[in-house]
Automatic annotation (TrEMBL):
<protein>
    <submittedName>
        <fullName>Mandelate racemase/muconate lactonizing enzyme family protein</fullName>
    </submittedName>
</protein>
<dbReference type="GO" id="GO:0016829">
    <property type="term" value="F:lyase activity"/>
</dbReference>
<feature type="domain" description="Mandelate racemase/muconate lactonizing enzyme C-terminal">
    <location>
        <begin position="176"/>
        <end position="280"/>
    </location>
</feature>
<dbReference type="InterPro" id="IPR029017">
    <property type="entry name" value="Enolase-like_N"/>
</dbReference>
<dbReference type="Pfam" id="PF13378">
    <property type="entry name" value="MR_MLE_C"/>
</dbReference>
<dbReference type="InterPro" id="IPR013341">
    <property type="entry name" value="Mandelate_racemase_N_dom"/>
</dbReference>
<keyword id="KW-0456">Lyase</keyword>
<dbReference type="InterPro" id="IPR034593">
    <property type="entry name" value="DgoD-like"/>
</dbReference>
<dbReference type="GO" id="GO:0016854">
    <property type="term" value="F:racemase and epimerase activity"/>
</dbReference>
<dbReference type="Pfam" id="PF02746">
    <property type="entry name" value="MR_MLE_N"/>
</dbReference>
<dbReference type="InterPro" id="IPR029065">
    <property type="entry name" value="Enolase_C-like"/>
</dbReference>
<dbReference type="InterPro" id="IPR036849">
    <property type="entry name" value="Enolase-like_C_sf"/>
</dbReference>
<dbReference type="InterPro" id="IPR013342">
    <property type="entry name" value="Mandelate_racemase_C"/>
</dbReference>
């Protein structure tokens, strides 16, 4: 057994002894995974917080989960674009496990929504995205009731800001020169210190995709200069052999992170790519929702950097548990969060307390964009840095007028 594998195994064994169950709940079969040590919410909030209702509303063109306590206090999160196709699961499987319950028992409510009534048979992004959206809204509720930012309920704050990179999603619609010029303008406007570009064709790699990538990457490095950090996202475009070849080209151009080179289900192919590349980090996990799979991805060196999506993966607590799983194997995380609207809010609170957050974090910036008027604060980056709000709840306040015309979906 290699020394690194032995050390990893020892770390995990000690982690299991220290934290024997998910979210510090009673031990259940098969739940032997490192867990986030959540402070006692019953001590943080002395009185019970009965949840009166969980609703899905549509306003400002967005779906919003609104959790209302018995005293009328509300917790809110915007939903991601997946929710529009998942409303039947939210209504039929998830909401009942939260209504009428004490919000301070949130870890147990999450577990119940997964395990009870055979809900686990739906496990995957579809179920966990619904559970995660409710969980995030409940955190907002608890933060508002306690008059604390959510991160203070989760653990010890380690940072009040983080540095960002700017994403560009173009895959050949615009010319390479246009994309690079746009990136340069975004860097100048935000002061960001890095960019993420798309390589390959997204789950395919046509000859045209390949030619574009091989011309585009050196151009980005040449035009933006050596001081700018470059991340490259393939979205599963390559076979393992292609991934290795493109990976070496990325290394030659000083790219720092290569995200999801192969189909995310091809663990062995991804592992081969990672083993063959020595100058950059392989990243992935956006599509994954199984904590056991995250453990395997870390333990078997499929990825160096885990990128669970906070909503897809079931919320803030499960995001922190992925961080603990990664930490047990000496690995880091950078959650998938390409947002510049209220969807970024739960990431703020994970980022505030996560000990193994890696590198620059993603931010989407559109040139000439105007701040939204239906919530505050305006979400912006200055000098390459995102400040983490220290206001109660998730840190987003909504204009009360938007609820008057909201359509109830669930």
């Amino acid at each position: 057994m290699q020394r690194r594998q032995f050390l990893h195994k020892t770390i995990v064994s000690s982690s299991l002894l220290a934290t024997p169950s998910v979210f510090n709940l009673d031990q259940t079969a098969g739940s032997e995974l490192p867990a986030w040590k959540l402070p006692d919410l019953h001590k943080a909030i002395a009185d019970p917080v009965p949840i009166r209702s969980v609703e899905l509303l549509k306003t400002q063109g967005q779906l919003m989960v609104v959790v209302t306590a018995q005293d009328g206090t509300k917790g809110i999160t915007q939903c991601n674009e997946r929710m529009q196709n998942l409303t039947s699961l939210l209504k039929g499987l998830v909401i009942e496990h939260f209504t009428g319950k004490d919000a301070r028992d949130l870890p147990q409510l999450i577990d119940d929504a997964y395990r009870l009534n055979s809900n686990y048979k739906y496990a995957g992004m579809s179920l966990w995205n619904c559970i995660g959206s409710v969980e995030i809204a409940v955190w907002d509720l608890l933060g508002r009731l306690s008059k604390k930012p959510v991160y203070q309920l989760l653990g010890k704050p380690l940072r009040n800001q983080y540095e960002v990179y700017i994403s560009d999603f173009d895959r050949g619609t615009d010319t390479a020169d246009v994309v690079v010029e746009r990136l340069a303008q975004k860097l100048a406007a935000t002061g960001a210190k890095g960019v993420k570009i798309k390589v390959g064709g997204r789950m395919r790699n046509t000859p045209e995709d390949d030619r574009r990538t091989r011309l585009f990457v050196p151009l980005v490095r040449k035009k933006l200069g050596d001081k700018i950090t470059i991340y490259a996202d393939a979205n599963g475009s390559y076979t393992p052999e292609e991934g290795i070849e493109i990976g070496h080209m990325l290394e030659d151009n000083g790219v720092a992170i290569f995200e999801e080179p192969c189909n995310f289900e091809d663990e062995e192919g991804l592992r081969r790519v990672n083993k063959s590349l020595t100058k950059l980090r392989l990243a992935g996990g956006e599509q994954d929702t199984s904590l056991y799979r995250f453990e395997r991805l870390a333990r078997t060196d499929v990825y160096d950097l885990l990128q669970a999506d906070i909503y897809y993966n079931g919320g803030i607590l499960r995001g922190l548990q992925v961080a603990e799983i990664a930490r047990a194997y000496g690995k880091t995380i950078a959650p998938h969060t390409p947002k510049s609207d209220p969807l970024i809010a739960p990431f703020w609170h994970l980022a505030a307390i996560c000990p193994n957050l890696y590198g620059l974090q993603e931010f989407v910036y559109e040139l000439n964009s105007k701040p939204a008027t239906w919530y505050e604060p305006a979400i912006r980056v200055q000098n390459g840095v995102m400040q983490i709000p220290n206001t109660p709840g998730l840190g987003i306040n909504y204009d009360e007028q938007i609820w008057k015309s909201a359509e109830r979906i669930v």
